[in-house]
Structures are given as structure tokens and as C-alpha cells.
Amino acid sequence: MGGLYVHVPFCRKACTYCDFHFSTNLDRQEEMIAAFVREMELRKDFFPEKGPLKTIYFGGGTPSVCSPAQLALVIDKAAQLWGIEPGAEITLEANPDDLSLAYLESL
Questions:
Q1: CA proximity to 27, closest of 6, 7, 8, 10
Q2: Tell me: the pLDDT tens digits for 73-106?
Q3: Could you report the per-residue pLDDT of 27-70, keeping only the tens digit for each?
Q4: DSSP state of 37
Q5: In angstroms, how far apart are the furthest CA atoms of the chain?
Q6: Residue 35's CB: how many other CB atoms inside 10 A?
Q7: Residue 46's pLDDT is what?
Q8: Which residues 6+ apart lie within 8 Å of 70 measured at CB?
Q9: Contact 49, 60 (CB under 8 A)
């Protein structure tokens, strides 16, 4: 099967060049993650091709504002619903200011 794109619409600050939908209010991240999981459940039969996912891409916005635990909820739901191919590429757009050794190790 193909891939899954997850748009994380949160950023720590607004960039003048960005044309994507985003919010700098990070208070609703938990609700957003729950909505992603619910949307995945509702669309579990959406993919015409069956089989495990080959890629998962977290774009945005700035997905690195999410905690590793929040990202894991989305990945775990994808694995439950569609499976994830061994060695699948899982990519996260990140702002370097969000990254620390501990965060990267958690990912």
C-alpha cells in the first residue's frame, strides 16, 4: 500500500513565507491527536490498495511540536488499521529549535 500523510497544523511562531494552515496556539494538540486517530478509524477502508503502509509522513505546520508519545498514538493506530511494512520510512518535519538529543532518542 502507499503512504499516509499527517498534517500537523501547529507552529511555535508564524513564518511570513508559509502558505499552509497553522496555529501558534498549542493548547489543542491533544484534541488534534484524538481527531487524527478518529479520522483514521472512520477512513480505515479508504485505501483501495490493501497491505501495509510503506511510508508515514508528518508534515505541517511543525510536527516536531508534538511529543513522541503523541506521534506514537498516530503510528500505533496506523499499524493497527493498515499495518506498517518492515523498514517503512517514517518522516517528521522538524524545526531544529525543537530538537534535543532526548527528543530524537525518543523518536
A1: 10
A2: 999 999 999 999 999 999 999 989 989 999 999 9
A3: 888 998 999 999 999 988 887 777 799 999 999 888 999 999 99
A4: H
A5: 40
A6: 11
A7: 81
A8: 29, 30, 33
A9: no
CA 32 – CA 41 distance, rounded (Å) = 14
Here the cell at position 83 is: 499495518
Q: Closest Cα partner for 57 from 88, 81, 91, 82?
A: 91
Chain centroid to CA 61: how far? 10
Q: What is the CA radius of gyration of the chain?
A: 14
DSSP track, 7-36: EE-B-SS--TT--S--BS-GGGHHHHHHHH
Name beta bridge partners: 4: 56
pTM: predicted TM-score of the whole model, two decimal places: 0.88
Cell 500500500 found at: 1
Q: How many helices (H) and strands (E) does the chain have?
A: 3, 3
